[in-house]
Amino acid sequence: MAGEKGPRRIGMREVARVAGVSVSTVANVLSRPTIVAPETRRRVEQAIRGVGYVPSGPARQLRGVPSPLVGSLILDLANPFYAELNRGIEDRLAEAGCLLLACSTDQQPGKEQRILRLLQEQAVRGIIVAPASPDPTPLLEVSRRGTPVVLIDQPRGRLDLCSVAVDHTLGGRLAAEHLISLGHRRIAYLGGTVDPDPVAERREGLRLALAAAGLDTRRSLVDIRMALHPPPLAHAAEAAVEQILAARPRPTAVVCVNDTAALGLLGGLQAAGLRVPADMSVVGYDDLPFAARLAPPLTTVNQPKYELGRAAADLLLDEARPDHTHRGIRFQPSLVVRASTAPPPAGKRSQR
Amino acid sequence: MAGEKGPRRIGMREVARVAGVSVSTVANVLSRPTIVAPETRRRVEQAIRGVGYVPSGPARQLRGVPSPLVGSLILDLANPFYAELNRGIEDRLAEAGCLLLACSTDQQPGKEQRILRLLQEQAVRGIIVAPASPDPTPLLEVSRRGTPVVLIDQPRGRLDLCSVAVDHTLGGRLAAEHLISLGHRRIAYLGGTVDPDPVAERREGLRLALAAAGLDTRRSLVDIRMALHPPPLAHAAEAAVEQILAARPRPTAVVCVNDTAALGLLGGLQAAGLRVPADMSVVGYDDLPFAARLAPPLTTVNQPKYELGRAAADLLLDEARPDHTHRGIRFQPSLVVRASTAPPPAGKRSQR
DNA sequence: ATGAAAGCGCTAACAT
DNA sequence: ATGTTAGCGCTTTCAT
């Protein structure tokens, strides 16, 4: 009647007591089973099961065993692009017995800082981050302090860190070249008011392609900015239709910052009585699962989301190896042509 | 030139040394600043910043401070439904300074077990779980061992745990009643081969509504099962069209297990030359962001995903309070009528 | 093959 | 107001 002293956590001590051995023997059974006498080992293992022993991670870490926790700091967990990316990270981590600490920054440097701090306190094995702030200093600081950092969706440039990125300049070029070959000469780029780097790159790719086609990008590239906060993005995109149609000269095609924006744009265009692609071509970015099934099926630039995550996790896990050297991996996006793009309306085609 | 002895972690010891005080004074500055003399405090705070001290979470936990980590065990991180739910969890946790450990089970009891174990080792503050296994024993065991467990998307029934769930029977009823009122008499339910509980409930709701309308559910409810593994679900749904059209009597409407399945079905139906909703009505489930923008906009049953997550986190955090008692929260789904449902084709309407 | 003992970084009770 | 001390549960020498 006196034994039940609350569900206090059971440790190695208790196991040792039950098995009639010392704690170090229990420890040995766990980490170097071979050096323990078979009979003793059996007894210990039985005691472990008997009392339902679960080792304490924190205690281990205190002793210097690396943490199985890896942080991922991305813009928004609920965004399908990042959700898929996180899944890639998770799967790779699972292979190494690690767990994912998933965090959203909502693109706010303040949140990013706060979480970075929490993650360091937890002494995580490393952090995979899509930077919210343009200033890389805090990240470098974290890395210098001993927590490995892997940059995602941002080339490492001259930074002394590992990174995984997609060549968004190429992505932008691909989109633009496709439209140009279709006969478009005025293209709108639907982006946000504040650009994280990767988004600016896409616009640059567009510009490059337009220039390469001998077009004056001052006239042929129309920059449309939407307020990104608060979400949902699809609404902002829907509302942007007005701006797009008001632009002079009026663009005949729109390249969107991502598929979600394209989704909203499609709705807005339809509401405005324009047909896609007959009156206006639309290109998305990301190639989310629903893109193929929209009406019309969306032409978009595919990014290898899952693989991006896997590669980032791979790099991060590699940081633990003694011979690790920082690397930058770059993925190529690819254009997926579907039905939301077509030649511009007759009469617009060669208009200058 | 000799100071740089590797980036070994800096602890309270070092801070104390620099500030010329003892470790407990440093500890006091951190946890009970008021009892420290202002001047001393200033010196210590300066030392903290000076050496870039970051407290060690693991060491704290070992001393009994509760972990800020909370695990979430759901089917699939990349599934938009769960992604949004996780976001709700994350936001609520952030308010309490906690972090989310996001894990996917892929509906595999084995994975679930493995992760449950890892989470316990990390001594997390608690676990929010959408059970992958029908057997609740392991979960109860975890709870009994001292790690709070909150069930999600599954009513707690007689289980001694907190839970957050949606009334899926109502969801199924809502969908069926809508279709029945439109004149449909044969409805297909497009589900998976193995049902997690919540999915079976939806079917039951359908059955109830059909029966209430005086229909023989043996004839009026057509059960279509798709293989869920491997994904993508949208493909499976697309392929299921054949089965649906082959059913005799042929259904005039399909209720899908979720919006993703509906997405695929829409594609398959279109490929088969059927128009939605003229030839076939389609109802989704979840109301994901893209549902409103599909062609046609999808009639679907909305679940409060984000709120579900928040509520679960709320319950979990509450478990730490001494006066906590387990509770079950139940959300109501709601029908969102859009354009994918209409009366059945003429001639089918009153056919028996 | 097994055990004793030190100590990881921290908190809290106690002593000064 | 500040310091001393004893662990938390574990890993790891170093005896035995």
What can you see in these coordinates?
Two copies of one chain form a homodimer. The first copy, chain A, is α/β, with parallel strands linked by helices and 352 residues long. The first copy, chain A, has two domains: 69-167 and 305-332, Response regulator (Rossmann fold, 3-Layer(aba) Sandwich); 169-303, Response regulator (Rossmann fold), CATH 3.40.50. Helices cover 42% and strands 16% of the residues of chain A. The first copy, chain A, is built from 14 helices and twelve strands. Chain A has helices at 12-19, 23-31, 38-51, 57-62, 80-95, 109-121, 137-144, 168-182, 197-212, 217-220, 233-239, 241-246, 259-271, 305-318, and strands spanning 69-74, 99-104, 126-129, 149-152, 162-166, 187-192, 221-226, 253-256, 281-286, 299-302, 328-331, 334-336. A six-stranded parallel sheet of chain A has the order 2-1-3-4-5-11, with helices on both faces. In chain A, strands 7-6-8-9-10-12 form a six-stranded mixed sheet, with helices on both faces. In chain A, α5 (80-95) links the parallel β1 and β2 (99-104). In chain A, α1 crosses α2 (23-31), α1 crosses α3 and α8 runs parallel beside α9. Chain A is elongated and about 90 Å long. The termini of chain A are far apart. At the A-B interface, α4, α5, β2, α6 and α13 of A face α4, α5, β2, α6 and α12 of B. Chain A binds a DNA duplex (16 and 16 nucleotides) through α2 and α4.
